[in-house]
Amino acid sequence: MTDTAAIEVSDLVKEYGDLRALDGLDLRVEDGEFFGLLGPNGAGKTTFIEILVGLTRKTSGHAEVFGYDVVDDYRDARNAIGLAPQEFNVDRFFPIREVLEHKAGYHGIPPKEAERRADAALKRVGIYDKRDERFDWLSGGMKRRLLLARALVTDPDLLILDEPTAGVDVQLRRDLWNVVRDLNANGTTVLLTTHYIEEAERLCDRVAVMDEGTVLDVATPEDLMSRGTDTITITLADEPSEVPAFDLDAVLDAAVEADRLTVRVEDGGRAVADVVTALQAAGHQVVDLDVSRTSLEEIFVQMTGDDASTARDDGDAGNGDAGGHDAGDDESPAEAEVSQV
Length: 341
Ligand SMILES: Nc1ncnc2c1ncn2[C@@H]1O[C@H](COP(=O)(O)OP(=O)(O)OP(=O)(O)O)[C@@H](O)[C@H]1O
Prior knowledge:
Keywords: ATP-binding, Nucleotide-binding, Transport
CATH topology of the largest domain: Rossmann fold
Family: Belongs to the ABC transporter superfamily.
Organism: Halorubellus litoreus
Bound molecules: adenosine-5'-triphosphate
Shape: elongated
Mean pLDDT: 85
Strand order of the largest sheet: 6-7-8-3-9-10
Distance between the termini: 28 Å
CATH class of the largest domain: Alpha Beta
Pfam families: ABC_tran, DrrA1-3_C
Largest sheet: 6 strands, mixed
Order of helices and strands: EEEHEEHEHHHEHEHEEHEEEHEH
CATH superfamily of the largest domain: P-loop containing nucleotide triphosphate hydrolases
CATH architecture of the largest domain: 3-Layer(aba) Sandwich
Protein name: ATP-binding cassette domain-containing protein
Low-confidence stretches: 308-341
């Protein structure tokens, strides 16, 4: 890790007419981190990423990638980033191997090396056997793999993944994460936006929770989760007529229904033994017990008041084609005033 941050932004503002998509965003992502960006729909995540890669021009504020200003040192900043965008924006007239070679060439990589890298990237994401096919002929899952391969072909120091697993099946999601985790273990900084909260929980060193164009908080997933309460669910041999009295500081509240007692505590792992001992001392016999932690998703909902955009990582995947449309070529700036991407 160096002193120079992978991403450093301060007071970043983006206005679309009257709408403030980014409202004074401050964020620092360290070199080598696996960093998650969480937030409800419209929080400004994609806008932030588009400013980093030069697809959108900031209204005001400051943004640097590895010390390069994203406007003044645009070319250096852009060359450091590999982006797998949310939208499928791949040139569909060329075999995918050539698409990757063009991308490498655009970033100044000589043809022979570009060929080598295109092959290596296709192998890495597992679609080398499709190298002569066109984008349109790939399945939805293969298209996602290709977006990752294209992001990797320049061997970026910062890999940005904007909802890379939206709508893909569980197996593919795991495959993609193995590739990305491996890259991160070898020093690549990863910025991930995802609506799969458990994905962030499992992968990220730290996450930023964004809402309405600002960062509400930055913390490790564990830190965020420790802010919630845990629930101990206990099945008793008897059916107490009322909640057993607990003389324990750890217990926040408790409720009983038939033979099932639910006890809310701050730290379930620590409190469980005391709770069981107290119950046994009061003459109850514990038949079964379960401790459930507050999920990151619940904390997220508490922070943003929005759960419509989040999904549990429980196999709710579609066919791999969801969420993708052609958004034109990757190298076309979204706004006319931005110089060449
Ligand atoms: N080109 C644009 N013109 C006008 N408004 C825009 C444009 N792009 C984004 N916005 C608005 O800016 C806000 C932030 O959008 P953005 O796409 O950055 O959010 P997001 O956090 O990526 O959302 P999602 O999770 O749905 O992808 C939204 O209110 C959106 O409607």
